[in-house]
Amino acid sequence: MDFKIEHTWDGSPVKHEPVFVRLNPGDGGVMMEVRAPFFNDPPAPPGEPGKPFNELWDYEVVEAFFLNDITEQYLEVELCPHGQHLVLLLSGRRNVWKQELALSFKVSKGEAKWEGRAYLPWSYFPPNVTKFNSFAIHGSKDKRSYEALYPVPQHELQQGQKPDFHRLEYFKLFSFNTVLGEEWKQPESDLWLTQKPGV
Q1: pLDDT tens digits along 133-161
Q2: pLDDT for 10-31, tens place per residue?
Q3: Is residue 131 a contact partner of residue 174, using CB atoms and an 8 Å limit?
Q4: In 3D, which of 112, 102, 117, 88 has the Cα closest to residue 21?
Q5: For residues 10 and 157, is the Cβ–Cβ distance under 8 A?
Q6: Separation of alpha carbons 122 and 176, rounded Å
Q7: For residues 36 and 126, what is the distance between their CA atoms, to the nearest angstrom?
Q8: With contact defined as beta carbons under 8 Å apart, do 136 and 61 qualify?
Q9: Single pTM value for the model
Q10: Which residues neighbour 32 within 8 Å (Cβ) at sequence distance 6 or greater?
Q11: How far from each other are the two terminal CA atoms of the chain, in whole angstroms?
């Protein structure tokens, strides 16, 4: 499952090689691979590479969101070219109930590009993922750039609107069954069993 982030959050074409995201689902979970330009702006977060880092969205990141659009339960994964990561479980828009989960994440980077591989266990995914979106952020201050796989349609933009990656209504249909076959059922998650919809 391959995706290219070719637009800014509000629908303009990006002015660099698009960020590439590949999802390889398997028995134990999903291998998420990222290939992206390396802007090195802003500089690296002050956290240890390979460890969770809170508020990683303030740095250079590529993000993936996996949503059950009926319950509004979703998994947010943020990967940074400097090796830090952030995994959030949310129940309801912006309502984080678990964060900084452990992640197997490896990065290699050169002067102008970086690649990352993160292994997402099925237990991190909410039941019945139906929609997906992916994002990339880089740059500092007024040069900050927010990019989206599925941007806000330009005819729906409001004057003065700011980027918001939790606009779940703009996520698009998604199913792991397209790769794993119609008979495949997403494994149950002990993590998510503790979080009932609407609680």
Answers
A1: 999 999 998 899 999 999 998 888 888 88
A2: 999 999 999 999 999 988 999 9
A3: yes
A4: 117
A5: yes
A6: 11
A7: 27
A8: yes
A9: 0.94
A10: 21, 22, 23, 24, 64, 77, 79, 117, 118, 119, 120
A11: 33
